[in-house]
Amino acid sequence: MRPALHTVSYAGVWPGQARLTLAETIQRAAKLGFEGVEIVAKRPHLSVLDYDDEDLKRLKEQMATLSIECAAMAGYTNFSADADHPDIPLGEMQIAYVTELARIAQQLGGEIIRVFTAYRHEKLNHGQTYERCVKGLRECAQRAADYGCTIAVQNHHGFAAHYESMYDLIMDIDEANCRAAFDAWSPTLHGDDIVAAAKKMAPITCYTTCADYQYRPQFQYHPDVVNYTPLPAFVQMVPMGEGMIDYEGFLNALRDGGYNGWVAFEMCAPLLGGGSLDNLDKYAKGFIKYIKPWLGK
After folding, report:
1. Which residues lie closer than 8 Å to 179 by C-beta, 6 or more apart?
2. CA–CA separation, 25 vs 136, rounded Å?
């Protein structure tokens, strides 16, 4: 396996998080010991509106100088988007966006386009959402194939996030270059056996991303009865190995199932200790140290 840094980690996407440019983030990734970057395919990093061929050429040259590869392009899709207005071709727009990301990935020497399924929408039932995801992701894969790229569906959005549903979805899409970007934190939050989940998903997984968390219970206070009712727990990001996720079991199961690809690290939620550059670097260095037993195997 090989370590990659998701550039969202330094994109300033949550309050208090330090923000670096894409070029600065790539420089930092190399300095911290990563071999690749997963590039945020939107502002403030790489928007398809901002990067022409000359910009991509300069970016590729920078990455080559630093010996950093394009592990993946991080696309942002939601195939249930604006179901209230079906006259707006948002599905087609997203397919065009993913196709452009495949072209960009090819220019940068990459092969993987990370995408999402859909958020649940009150106007769509399960079958309608499923059909949108299958058709949209299938066409994304077909068009990405022209650039030698693979669509990696990440189990983060609400729809088909459970590993068995994700497995079914990818089987129904039925394109050789549509696979899973299967992560451990989602099945952990679902209460699943993540080792069993990883064993099932390993044969169709082409990418995985790590981040570790601890639960922080929350309650609503009711002064009239001098008591509390429970709320969903807050999930606090902590350094790798200090959280509730069994990454040893998960990564071993992926490896034993034949997975030998990128293992990305992302900091896309508030960190314990804050969002200063020093704390971000501390977490990134901790990931490199934690992941060493699986590197190169």
Report:
1. 150, 151, 152, 153, 170, 204, 205, 206, 207
2. 31
Minimal CA–CA distance to 137: which of 162, 160, 121, 106? 160
What gap in Å lies between CA 160 and CA 169, rounded to an integer? 7
Contact 37, 29 (CB under 8 A): yes
Assigned token pair, 277: 């550059």
Contact indicator for 41, 76 with CB cutoff of 8 Å: yes
Which tens digit of pLDDT belongs to each residue from 92-146? 999 999 999 999 999 999 999 999 999 999 999 999 999 999 999 999 999 999 9
Contact (CB, 8 A) for 183 and 163 = no
Task: Give the domains, in start order, of the chain with CATH numbers.
Answer: 2-211+239-294 (3.20.20.150)
Say how far apart CA 150 and CA 206 lie, in whole Å. Answer: 8
Q: How far is CA 69 from CA 19, 117, 153, 258, in A?
A: 21, 26, 20, 22
- pTM for this one? 0.96
List, for residues 39-51, the tens digit of each pLDDT value: 999 999 999 999 9
Q: What is the secondary structure of 217-277 as a DSSP string?
A: EEEEEETTTTEEEEEEEEEEEE-TTSSS--HHHHHHHHHHTT--SEEEE---SPBTT-S-H
Task: Please give the structure tokens belonging to residue 198.
Answer: 């990883």
Distance, in Å, from the CA atom of 212 to the CA atom of 43, rounded to the nearest integer, reads 25
pLDDT tens digit string along 3-32?
A: 999 999 999 999 999 999 999 999 999 999
Q: What is the distance between the alpha carbons of residues 221 and 205, in angstroms, rounded to a whole number?
A: 44
